[in-house]
User: Which sequence fits this backbone?
């Protein structure tokens, strides 16, 4: 009798933890798909130019902020919500792509043959400038991002997934699929891969590598704009400093998957999202209550370091030649 | 300084005398600087000077890792934090321990050195940007632990930080208050200036000696081509670890001095921005060149202070009112300065001559 009672209790416990687990996985996937989208921007630029675009996180922030302003402008206009969202998405992508393009022209192209760390410093400078400009335009306060959909949600085995989260996952998957198609099955994609392989050889084959590089920056910026809107819609807030930590995490994700590799960035992003969300949920139990959920970031970095010790070029990264 | 010595060695007696004169003049200027700055610009700028010296030490420490050995470290501030917290924990009411300066400072440097090896050991196989992200992660890990180690046992006092840290005592002589020596009054900031100056000169001296040593050449070889260096019989593992350890030691040293000077440490001072700032000093000034790094350190401490004054008062004077928030304008100017200086001089303001030769001979390789 006692045995049966114990069994029932532990089974109940198991079901209860199962739905928490499921919830953590869903949250992780949502967060992870945003990381993936941003990580793609890092990885594409890295694959082609071999430089870390440290200002990429700020593009995500600008994307979210521009969308926020457009939505606020159009809210009273009586347009259907779908249109408002579409228009804000378009404008925000346009602004970010312009930004990505001008960024490359101003801060990276003049330094293409400079020492490796020079573009890193201009990127940091750009990131400071963009952050400050955003602070001057949108102020220091946290903006609440308008709720665009009904707050309805789906319940799966005790876990709750909101409509926004479903849309985020679907859109992210669709866009990433589209990007893979673009890179592997179009003329532009072939040109991108050729430039990544060797800019000079690609140029000899008639590829305008400057155009390809500009396009790459614009593609990454477009993805970043969408990612910015997604993350703001998910958490309901936008802030001028939101880009730096997100950018950092996305860069970590890109490295985790093997920087320069598109599928690696997607995998790395999803994994990082899952690791963070599961880590935050279970780190307390794992460490016997010594470490709390505020060690979430530590967890992510420990996993990154552990992965890199065993696979020094990331999960899907190829073993690159020692020197080009 | 090195140029001065070279000139002394190789040139005619007349030039030798000139070099000694220049050397003496430099010494005099450095000694009189805090008093001159105090008189001309005010006490606040002497404090800026002290910080400039601290950052020069940090930048020179990072220069060993990034400039000499070519290992991109984005978490360098972690070692600064280790040194500072070591001093703070062993010289404050936090645990009621009040060990003397001459014990705590080397201890902090040693501890930072151990952390340097701890970071270096697992990252030996990584190169380039993978190393950058791991060091960045390491820096964040240290900061997050400092932020959260107030529970369940209170070690670091969490985000509030540790205050009331003992002032630096040299013998029975406290640097924490105004002292009178030979009839001259030395305020506390002036005393710290001289102490920091001594340590900065020490760090510069060690940097010069390292650069010209067997180890320095080994670092340069690893930086240029690790495989070739290893084929030449260089133990790349030990030499890389040594670079991390040496850089970290300087960081820990500066950290201890910072804690004693400031009297207060909190995790906020050791964020990623700080690491990036130190890296900017190294790259902006001229990687691998001691003079350049010193220049970078001075500039990046002085420019933000200068723009703070410009953004507020100059705007008032020119336009008659404050149009743009001075703090924003200051950051804007700082960001633009970083971009413009880098576009203007991609190899840094004062690059090392050796680096310049390398650059002109193989400018086409994108990964170089």
Assistant:
């Amino acid at each position: 009798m006692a045995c049966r009672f114990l069994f029932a209790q532990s089974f109940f416990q198991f079901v209860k933890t199962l739905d928490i687990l499921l919830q953590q996985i869903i949250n992780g996937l949502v967060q992870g798909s945003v990381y993936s989208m941003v990580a793609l921007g890092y990885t594409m630029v890295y694959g082609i130019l071999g430089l870390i675009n440290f200002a990429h996180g700020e593009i995500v922030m600008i994307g979210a902020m521009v969308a926020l302003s457009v939505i606020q402008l159009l809210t009273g206009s009586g347009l259907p919500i779908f249109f408002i969202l579409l228009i804000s998405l378009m404008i925000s992508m346009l602004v970010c792509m312009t930004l990505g393009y001008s960024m490359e022209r101003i801060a990276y192209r003049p330094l293409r043959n400079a020492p490796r760390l020079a573009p890193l410093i201009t990127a940091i400078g750009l990131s400071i400038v963009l952050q400050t400009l955003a602070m001057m335009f949108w102020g220091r306060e946290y903006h609440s991002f308008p709720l665009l959909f009904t707050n309805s949600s789906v319940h799966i085995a005790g876990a709750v997934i909101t409509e926004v989260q479903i849309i985020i996952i679907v859109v992210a998957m669709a866009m990433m699929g589209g990007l893979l198609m673009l890179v592997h099955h179009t003329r532009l994609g072939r040109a991108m891969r050729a430039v990544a392989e060797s800019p000079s050889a690609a140029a000899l084959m008639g590829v305008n590598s400057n155009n390809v590089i500009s396009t790459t920056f614009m593609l990454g910026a477009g993805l970043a704009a969408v990612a910015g809107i997604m993350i703001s819609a998910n958490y309901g807030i936008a802030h001028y400093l939101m880009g730096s930590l997100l950018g950092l995490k996305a860069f970590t994700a890109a490295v985790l998957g093997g920087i320069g590799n598109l599928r690696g960035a997607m995998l790395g992003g999803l994994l990082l999202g899952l690791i963070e969300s599961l880590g935050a949920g279970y780190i307390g139990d794992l460490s016997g209550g010594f470490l709390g959920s505020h060690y979430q970031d530590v967890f992510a970095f420990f996993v990154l370091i552990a992965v890199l010790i065993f696979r020094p070029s990331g999960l899907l990264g190829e073993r690159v030649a020692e020197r080009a | 300084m090195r140029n001065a010595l070279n000139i002394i060695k190789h040139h005619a007696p007349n030039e030798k005398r000139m070099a000694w004169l220049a050397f003496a003049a430099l010494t005099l200027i450095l000694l009189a600087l805090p008093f001159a700055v105090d008189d001309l610009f005010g006490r606040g700028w002497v404090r800026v000077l002290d910080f400039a010296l601290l950052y020069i030490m940090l930048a020179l420490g990072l220069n060993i890792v990034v400039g000499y050995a070519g290992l991109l470290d984005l978490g360098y501030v972690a070692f600064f934090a280790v040194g500072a917290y070591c001093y703070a924990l062993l010289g404050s009411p936090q645990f009621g321990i009040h060990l003397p300066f001459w014990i705590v400072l080397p201890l902090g440097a040693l501890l930072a050195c151990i952390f340097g090896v701890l970071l270096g050991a697992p990252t030996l196989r990584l190169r380039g940007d993978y190393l950058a992200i791991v060091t960045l992660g390491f820096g964040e890990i240290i900061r997050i632990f400092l932020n959260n180690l107030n529970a369940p046992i209170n070690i670091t006092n969490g985000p509030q930080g540790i205050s009331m840290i003992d002032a630096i005592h040299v013998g029975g002589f406290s640097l924490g208050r105004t002292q009178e020596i030979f009839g001259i009054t030395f305020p506390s900031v002036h005393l710290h200036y001289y102490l920091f100056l001594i340590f900065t000169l020490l760090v510069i001296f060690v940097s010069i000696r390292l650069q010209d040593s067997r180890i320095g050449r080994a670092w340069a070889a690893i930086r240029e081509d690790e495989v070739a260096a290893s084929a030449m019989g260089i133990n790349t593992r030990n030499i890389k670890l040594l670079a991390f350890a040496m850089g970290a030691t300087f960081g820990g040293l500066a950290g201890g001095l910072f804690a004693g000077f400031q009297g207060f440490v909190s995790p906020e001072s050791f964020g990623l921005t700080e690491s990036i700032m130190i890296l900017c000093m190294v790259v902006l000034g001229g990687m691998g060149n001691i003079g350049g790094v010193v220049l970078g350190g001075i500039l990046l401490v002085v420019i933000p202070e200068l723009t703070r004054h410009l953004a507020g008062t100059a705007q008032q004077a020119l336009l008659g009112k404050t149009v743009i928030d001075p703090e924003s304008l200051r950051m804007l100017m700082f960001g633009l300065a970083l971009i413009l200086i880098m576009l203007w001089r991609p190899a840094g303001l004062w690059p090392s001559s050796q680096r310049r030769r390398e650059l002109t001979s193989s400018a086409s390789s994108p990964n170089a």
User: Anything to note?
Assistant: Chain B touches chain A through 56 residues (CB under 8 Å).
